[in-house]
């Protein structure tokens, strides 16, 4: 029997709670006001080309880097769909709706959260999915599950229906469960977890190195059973969970690697006042709940708020309500956008960061044919095609049981 998951956007929960993120700088706190230079509206003109619609609550877009050129879209309700030769296939690539937790509150961060294909997917057919399932452990109603699946031997557009669980993390609440997963250039899998959902992070999970909540972790899924912790992880042989790569996050909804440099970017959704983008450094502490972006939030447990890594950009909730992490553009169709980090806000605004020396300058994206910089839909996520072109994952209807999701190709000149 299928446990119905209402496919309303997970980001809605973030709007209620606020926003936050992180960025490294030798482990020392820096002034984000010095790093975050806002130039205002971009001199570039952005265009959006509709690729497909009729998706139910799309939250993630990935490519299989197998030479097929296919785009894979994850729906919050538990299906992964394929866009092939510009058309949305009717039959899902994967359907795990029966494994997901029932979403009693459609604004909570539940359902399918992210997925990633193994770097050698073309040969081994392996891919990994992060989703929220029921927990049978006392005191917990939900859990984050990382599960490995394989493509069918008979049909490249269909996955096998059963997988192998790699990792489970119990969740104390229904929101701020975490985000996506991504493979680095090192071949290891990186996964982001929210702080567990308690108001203002009062439980202190993000600063607690004995657990994975509020962390970005790094694991080797090619060795060990069910995985191996890389020997060079920063907390190996210390009093901490060795999987931890970086910590101090509130709700790291989207992480991504720069395909050229290997740099890891994170969009961390904040609490009361600020949204932020972080550049992730090995072993870095990004401050939550002591800090919200570069500002002191609560020092009741952790001293004076010093020694944390500040974000490379931040903005107040007068600018946006929920930061949606994106990608550094490395495609070929928009040369003017090369090397810029494009991201958005759930409110319908999009931005890009331009690095000049050690500073990151934020620009608001202007879209062709629009008098202002706010789009008439919600931005749920971003994704990359096999050719490194950029896609925006959006949703027109908020709060409906079957909201209309649309995928756009993003270009700039």
UniProtKB/TrEMBL annotation:
**Record keywords:** Signal
- Origin species, per record, is Compostibacter hankyongensis
| Transmembrane segments annotated in the record for this chain | none
Q: Kindly indicate where the leader peptide sits in this chain.
A: 1-22
Its protein name is PQQ-dependent sugar dehydrogenase
Keyword Transmembrane among record annotations: no
SUPFAM superfamilies assigned to the protein according to its UniProt record, in alphabetical order:
Soluble quinoprotein glucose dehydrogenase
Q: Does the keyword ATP-binding apply?
A: no
